[in-house]
Amino acid sequence: MVTATGLGSGLDINTLVTAIVDAERTPLIARVDNKKADIDNLVSGYGSLQTAMSAVRDSIAKLADATQLNATSATSSQTSAVSITADSTAQIGTYSLSVSQLAQPQSLISGNFSATTDVIGSGTLTIGVGTPTYNASPNETTYASFNQSSSVSITIAANSTLADVRDAINAANAGVNASILQDGTNYKLMINGENSGLSNGLSLTVSGDSSGTDTDTSGLSQLAFDANTANLTQTVAPQDALLSLNGLSVTSASNTITNVLDGVSLTLLSTTSSSATVSVSSDTAAITGLVDAFVSAYNTYLGSQKSLTKYDATTGDAGFLQGDAMTRTMVSQIRALMTDEITGLTGNISVLSDLGISVEADGSLKTNATTLDSAVRTNFDSVQKFFVGETVSGAAVSGFAGQIDTLLDSFLDSDGLILTKLSSLDDKLKTVEEDRLLYNQRMEALEARYLRQFNAMDALVGQLTTTGDMLKSQLDALPGYQNLRQSGQ
Length: 489
What we know:
Largest sheet: 5 strands, antiparallel
Distance between the termini: 50 Å
Strand content: 15-25%
Oligomer: single chain
Number of helices: 10
Order of helices and strands: HHEEEEEEHEEEEEEEEEHHEEHHEEHHH
């Protein structure tokens, strides 16, 4: 840029040009800034409204979900004997339960060893899992037969110690756990089944014993326990749980029973001397909690909406969305659903007020906790139909929650009103910034033009001044000119 010095005219050309250009620039940039501020306010306003509406949608989506409304509560009258849990598929009901026997895994123990380093020997140890049949008394802890369902063969290396055998069994994933116990003097190998139940009994068969036969009490054979040999001692027999549920006899290999009542899990902890009562009921606290969460989210949205659309005639204070037509339309549609009747349902709840939820004078929702709790406890089916909807004569009837959810989706989804509006505002912001750049370029060109003009003027004035000075000097040099000037002629 050419720098004007003002040497010819004596004027501060830079300051003069800056003032002239600023006089033209200021109103243009002010208009751009005002447009940007207006758009920024709308973006902020829609962002706040979007956040508040999203919270309402999140809360109402849970009320539109039948599995959420089917929340259940399960109780046991004897928690030390049986615990109970239930999911949303469980049917409401009360049951009498007696436990006569708990399920347990089998436990076998070896004879005595003097140390964990005692050498057992080598061979193949096959551990089977299946259902044993016991001998009659007095040998009722030994097998008459064994119906094997699976087996794992373990190779025991030469000179394996008691500890080596334990480790080999545990590494084989044979459905058992082996450990070494000390009774104060001697060491014993204990083998426990991983799973309870009569069908998870254990059989240990030896072959290729390095010490001799596969059934004697020396070498690896001293760990044999099957229908032919009983060199281990059974300390705990495998057994099923035995219980009665409302008079129905039930047998279970596990103390956790999930296949008797749909959606219900029973965990047996001890036998019972008298019947326990187990119950599944609607979790009214969870359901009313969902309703309360919606009411709270809606009232928060309402407060945000009022702040965004307010106008104070006295102070002139206005919300970012005051007077915005699209906001008025959305607010009006949401407000209407708070009082609309849901028609076509077969239940006897069709408006929020039937649940004890009233619309106050300021538009907010207020819950009568007693009325709501009573409706959930005594009329749950109608409560669920009101929120979720139902199919009547082959036609789907949308519930209250579904209608609000659908409406809010039309506002909040990627192709909804709010995001479409925000996209449009973003385009306008880009246009405003383009206008700002264009105005600045125009002002730079204007400033350059003014500088050229003023510099040209300054140069001309300088030339005229120089010419005048030269003429004055020449006149002053003429004979008698000074006398004429002094005489005034």
